[in-house]
Design goal:
Blueprint lengths: L7 H24 L3 E3 L4 E3 L2 H9 L6 H18 L5 H4 L5 E4 L6 H12 L3 E5 L15 H21 L1 H16 L14 H19 L7 E8 L20 H8 L3 E8 H16 L2 H15 L1 E5 L15 H17 L2 E4 L2 E4 L4 E6 L11 H5 L3 E4 L5 H9 L5 H10 L4 E4 L1 H17 L6 H17 L8 E4 L1 H13 L1 H7 L1
Parallel strand pairs: 3-10, 3-11, 4-7, 7-10, 12-13
Antiparallel strand pairs: 1-2, 5-6, 8-9
Helix pairs in contact: 1-2, 1-16, 2-3, 3-5, 6-11, 7-10, 14-16, 16-17, 16-18
Length: 492
């Protein structure tokens, strides 16, 4: 295992070729025009472009990437269908099957970022059937409605940012240079005084925009809520019922103003946020958010295998609760209306992506009705040594690049030669085979152990600002741990 350095050139050459092909694919993706989705509020990618974007962060797993790319593109296709058949087109929900650390969660997370869609990740193990203590399955829809409202509010605030900024400037100027106005009843200010006042205000506005007044303190009246934070606990999770008690009491109790002295730079942020809130039509925000959640929302249900009844197990104890969660989840995935504090949200066209390792159970252990609601099944492959080499070098957030960036903050450059990268990948693959397969997460434990001395001693006891990591250094640091199976279990 340790004498596999001869293959380093061949593997790293293939990595370089893949980097070139990825660059070409990315260039093609950027050159092709994207389509606007007026109802989703952003640009969209073709399936090939989606896969190309996912390739920047996730190594391998081509089948899973293709499946989610098609599912995502079908969202756009459906929104461009005319006639009554549009409402009949249902999303093809996906189950991703594979061991931990192979990229299931990362695929779903990156997919949601590409789509600019409301996205929530939930753990199936946190849900219980109605009547048990725990979260009810409808809370995932309330979460996605909350996320959609937050997204739309941020977008609307950005649209009103310029206007809110001007209003905030005017409020700051009112504190610094109060305006002079003529009163209809008695004339106390001359035209020249009013004109001088306006000129002074404009001079101060320019200074304000140039940051020359940032450190000057001003006193503000900031509106604060008198209702303390509340959480209601109960056997069916009353805190998840969708009725926000703080909103309820907040509308009854009057708002209270509190005086605070802040630097102008901080005061501008506070006032600008207040002004943006005044300019936003929340009714329109909620209406658009619900539409977006219903048509583009993505719910990622992780660890779905943990609520599957393990094959042949008697239906008693926790098994009953597992099947109960599945039956509660069924109408949500099939399509129903869930009441949220923003109104009813229909789940018919929300895309559900489930994932699980399925070590003990298998997809067929899910109740048949739920299996039918996840027609697309994709198996993700375990990662090999070659995959680890690519993971360490290719992605934009590659682990080696992360550590190099960390050390550059100390003005220290770390260089990994080709043989060291192959050695790290070999050890990761070996330990996954011998101990427990945790996928790419094994690289984190190995890299931390390998660089522990450098990370601890920087910058105090590091003589050279240029550090080279070689295969010999990797073997020196990790050989004893790898050979000792008991140590591997605890350290790697």
């Amino acid at each position: 295992m340790m004498n596999d350095i001869d293959k380093s050139t061949e593997i790293l050459e293939s990595v370089n070729k893949e980097l070139e092909s990825t660059a070409i694919a990315t260039k093609d993706a950027t050159e092709k025009p994207t389509h606007d989705i007026t109802k989703a509020g952003g640009s969209y990618f073709t399936p090939r472009q989606i896969v190309s974007e996912l390739d920047k962060y996730i190594i391998g797993q081509d089948a899973a990437k293709k499946a989610v790319a098609i599912a995502l593109r079908n969202r756009w296709r459906r929104q461009n269908v005319t006639g009554d058949i549009r409402d009949e087109i249902m999303p093809n929900n996906i189950i991703m099957i594979g061991p931990t650390g192979v990229g299931k969660t990362e695929i779903a997370r990156r997919l949601a970022r590409l789509a600019g869609a409301p996205f929530v990740k939930v753990e199936a193990t946190k849900f219980t059937e109605v009547g048990y203590v725990g979260r009810d399955v409808e809370s995932m829809i309330r979460d996605i409605a909350e996320r959609a409202v937050s997204m739309v509010r941020e977008e609307k605030a950005e649209e009103k940012r310029k206007e809110a900024r001007i209003n905030a400037e005017n409020r700051i100027l009112d504190l610094l240079i109060p305006p002079i106005k003529k009163s209809p009843s008695f004339d106390t200010a001359s035209d020249s005084e009013i004109e001088d006042n306006l000129k002074t205000r404009e001079k101060f506005r320019e200074m304000l925009r140039n940051g020359k007044l940032d450190h000057r303190p001003v006193e503000l009246d900031i509106m604060v809520d008198q209702v303390p934070s509340m959480q209601v606990l109960g056997p069916i999770g009353l805190d998840e019922m969708g009725m926000n008690l703080q909103d309820l009491f907040g509308n009854i109790l009057p708002k209270k103003n509190k005086k605070r002295k802040l630097p102008i730079s901080d005061a501008m942020k506070v006032i600008e946020k207040e002004e943006a809130e005044k300019l936003i039509d929340m009714d329109a925000v909620i209406k658009e958010a619900i539409l977006r959640a219903e048509n583009t929302g993505i719910v990622f249900v992780d660890e779905i295998d943990k609520i599957a009844s393990r094959g042949g197990a008697s239906h008693s104890g926790p098994e009953v609760s597992r099947e109960g969660v599945q039956r509660d989840l069924l109408p949500i995935v099939e399509g129903t209306s869930v009441n949220t504090k923003y109104g009813a949200v229909k789940t018919d066209h929300i895309l559900f992506i489930a994932s699980g390792a399925f070590h003990v159970s298998k997809p067929s252990d899910l109740i048949p009705e739920l299996q039918g609601r996840f027609p697309i099944r994709v198996e993700l492959n375990s990662l090999t040594k070659d995959d680890f080499v690519k993971i360490l070098t290719i992605p934009e957030n590659a682990l080696i690049k992360q550590y190099q960036a960390l050390m550059r903050s100390e003005d220290i450059n770390i260089d990994f030669d080709e043989s060291s990268i192959l050695e790290i990948a070999s050890i990761a693959a070996f330990v996954n085979d011998e101990v427990t397969n945790i996928g790419a997460r094994r690289l984190h434990t190995i890299m931390t152990t390998l660089l522990e001395h450098i990370l601890f001693n920087s910058p105090d006891n590091i003589e050279s600002k240029e550090i080279k990591i070689t295969a010999d250094l990797v073997r020196e640091k990790l050989n004893e741990i790898v050979k000792n199976n008991d140590l591997s279990k605890f350290i790697l």
